[in-house]
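Throughout our pipeline, every protein is held as a single compact record rather than as scattered files. This encoding replaces a full spatial description with a residue-level series of whole-number codes. The remainder of this section carries one protein's record, kept here as part of the documentation.
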Amino acid sequence: MPLSRDGLAEVRKLLKQQAAIAQFGKFALGSTGRKSLLGEAARACSAAIEAQFCVIFRHRKKENDFRVEASTGWDKSLFGKTISKLDETCPQTHAFSSLKPVIYGELNGAPKSPLSHIYAKHKIASTVDVVIPGATTPYGVLEVASARDHHYDADEVLFITSFAEVLGNAVAKSDNLELLKTSIRKMKKLIEEKNRDIEKNKILSEELNHRIINNLQLVYHMINQQLDVVSSENDKKGIKAIARRVVTLASVYNNLSGYQMAEKNDFGASAKTLCADIAEFQRSSKRDIHLECESERLIVRADLLTTLGIIVAELVTNSYDHACPSNKGHIKVSVLRGTDHPHTGKILIQDDGRGFDVHQKTTRRGINLVRSLIELIKGNYHVDTSPNGTQWTILFPLSVK
């Protein structure tokens, strides 16, 4: 039976909305700035649903309010302004608190709300507000509004909710990119500071340049590895891998940086700092994974400290990504001096995840990188694994040159 004219119109509307979500998702993958991302989100959402107004509010916990980050249809002078407090009189509050869509307007069976005077200025008669999810707490609220008392049906509310979900993921991706940029800026700043210091001492200058060149080459190699495997569906995973490794190097550099560059460094203290950085980077409201680190004082050369830091970061991140599919678990890192050989160091990395087949050939670049690095420092390793967890035991000489 052919569709009626109204039925065809409804199908076209739904297809238009689905296309809008797909096109915005594609835009978000290539976006490099928060401002352009939010601006395009407001434009695309309002166009897809043919709404007069679309506003993106960012929730500010400390100030206890909502801030206008982007909009269509609103006076441009309102960008960046706070228009509503986090109280019970504004629709943003109800949506944010209940985590459910909130609709105002008489045609929707809900009374008109005593909205802000901004709404009156634009003669807004009906609104629908949905939460924009975030990594740990909601980012804010997406609001679509009309100057007429519009009836928002279930399909429209579903579209706005789905669009907000995509927007939330895009904002999280933007934050990860910003973390990557921040890490790179920190590394550049550190290099600049050390370059000023090396003028005071030629020997330290040569050593510093050697370390910087080696580590920058390592970063370049890692990025090229990711570029070989990245496809559209894995863009986020690839970007996160690059960001994680740069954060690892930044953490190692932070341990190498003091008022003076030391020839030898305490890897025990460095491991604790590195694990804290990884835990912060991996932190998410959807995960309940505890990372613990215990360490003894273990003095190593700076180049060995860098290699050990990358090994620990790769194995810990592997536990986060693969050992705990239920997003619950415990990871423990131990840095010890060898009991039988005092000139040997030992690293234990344990998790209570599901284990893996040690003998199966893996395509995980992180695991293959770990094996190569252990060989590079003339160390050896052993893996004990079962359905109840995995333990890596890594032994290495402290005097590697």
In short: The CA atoms of residues 292 and 332 lie 5 Å apart. Residues 201-397 form a domain with the Heat Shock Protein 90 fold (CATH 3.30.565.10).
